C-alpha cells in the first residue's frame, strides 16, 4: 500500500505546427501523419503557438514553424520559443532560403524545409532532430513504394 498522493505524467512527444494558413496547416498535418508523426498539435498564429507551447511544453518535442506569418513573423516566434527552451528542436518552413533563415541557423534553428512540404524531407529532418515524435513503424512512409498519392483530408484540423 502506498500512502499519500501520486501523480502520473503522460509524455506525448507531439509535433507542434505553427502556420497562419488553414490549408497549409492541413497539408502539413497530413504530411506529418504520412511521415510517421505520433501526434500533431496545431496553432493558427505565432502567439497561439507560443501560448500552446507554454501550456503543453512537456508534451511537445519539436516545432514546425512557418516563416511568413502575420502579425508575428516566424523569426520572432523562433526567438521567443528558443528563449523559453533553447533545446527545443525548431524547424522553419519557408518558400525561399532567405538570409534571415541562415541567420536563424546560427542562432539555433535546426534546419529549414522548403514549401511545399516534402514528406520525405520532413521525415528526414524529424529523424535527425526530433526522433521522439516519430512512430517506430515509420508511418505510411515505411511502406515500400508508398507515395503520398491520396490528397489531404478536406476538414482542416482545429487550431488555437
Mean pLDDT: 81
Overall strand count: 5
Examine the secondary-structure arrangement and name the CATH architecture: 3-Layer(aba) Sandwich
Strand content: 15-25%
Q: Let me know the largest β-sheet.
A: 5 strands, parallel
Tell me the count of domains: 1
The percentage helix is: 25-40%
SSE topology string: EHEHEHEHEH
CATH superfamily: Response regulator
Provide the CATH top-level class.
Alpha Beta
How would you classify the helix and strand content by structural class?
alpha/beta
Note the gap between the termini: 42 Å
Strands in their spatial order, largest beta sheet: 2-1-3-4-5
Shape: globular
Which residues form runs of ≥5 with pLDDT under 50?
141-154
Radius of gyration: 16 Å
Describe this structure in words.
The protein has 160 residues and is an alpha/beta fold. It has a single domain (14-135), classed as Response regulator (Rossmann fold, 3-Layer(aba) Sandwich). 35% of the residues lie in helices and 16% in strands. It contains five helices and five strands. It has helices at residues 22-35, 46-56, 74-84, 99-107, 119-129; strands at residues 14-18, 40-43, 60-66, 90-94, 111-114. It has a five-stranded parallel β-sheet with strand order 2-1-3-4-5, sandwiched between helices. The longest helix is centred in the first third of the chain and has 14 residues, at 22-35. It starts with 13 loop residues before the first strand and ends in a 31-residue tail after the last helix. Residues 141-154 have low confidence and may be disordered.
